[in-house]
Amino acid sequence: MSFSVYLSGEIHTDWRDEIQRGAEAAGLDVEFTSPVTDHPASDAAGDHLGETESQFWRDHQSAKVNAIRTRTLIEQSDLVVVRFGDKYKQWNAAFDAGYCAALGKPYVTLHDEEIVHPLKEVDAEAQAWCTTTDQVVETLRYVLKA
Predict the structure, then answer these.
(1) Residue 88 pLDDT greater than 90, yes or no
(2) Averaged over 135-141, what is the pLDDT?
(3) Tens digit of pLDDT for each residue in 25-37?
(4) By CB distance 3.0 to 4.6 Å, which of 63, 97, 123, 130 could disulfide with 135?
(5) Burial class (CB in 10 A: 0-12, 13-18, 19+), 48
(6) Which CATH class is domain 3-39+74-145?
(7) 15: confidence class by pLDDT, cuts 50, 70, 90
(8) What does the CA dihedral 102, 103, 105, 110 come to, rounded to 10 degrees?
(9) Number of Cα atoms under 13 Å in the Cβ half of residue 52
(10) 25/19 Cα distance (integer angstroms)
(11) What is the mean pLDDT of residues 101-111?
């Protein structure tokens, strides 16, 4: 069985690489996709559309351009992993989880226990809550090889 997994969420650690290495070591047939993880490039995604009057409109343009990739890859995926880190508020990740819930797209969350309470609604819709990348890989192994 082959699977497409979209890796959503924080971009400041190597959690995506850990999951990809784990899936490869487990011999899983998984194609991984993700948002643009180069923060400055993501922030500038709409700059080619012209200068704006304020930071709000620059962010607005870039969010819309980024949404083309995000929405397409989430819709094409079989599963989404949504990572919430502890250093930054990942509102975009929460939005992605909500988008998955609205689509009926299975997703799992990946975050530490310290932020369970603020993510209770996000976790309530998830098919699983993982605290480690190894748990994500084991979830994928089960789904693909059970």
Answers:
(1) no
(2) 98
(3) 999 999 999 999 9
(4) 130
(5) exposed
(6) alpha beta
(7) very high
(8) -40
(9) 14
(10) 10
(11) 98
Q: For residue 90, give both structure tokens.
A: 């990942």
Report domain extents, the chain: 3-39+74-145
Helices (H), the chain: 15-25, 39-43, 55-76, 91-103, 120-125, 133-145
**d(C-alpha 125, C-alpha 72), whole Å:** 21
Give the residue from 77, 112, 89 showing the smallest Cα distance to 5.
77
Q: What is the CA radius of gyration of the chain?
A: 16
Query: Could you give the CA distance from residue 17 to residue 72 in angstroms, rounded to a whole number?
Result: 22
pLDDT interval class at 144 (50, 70, 90) = very high
Pairing mode of beta strands 79-83, 30-33: unpaired
**pTM to 2 decimal places:** 0.95
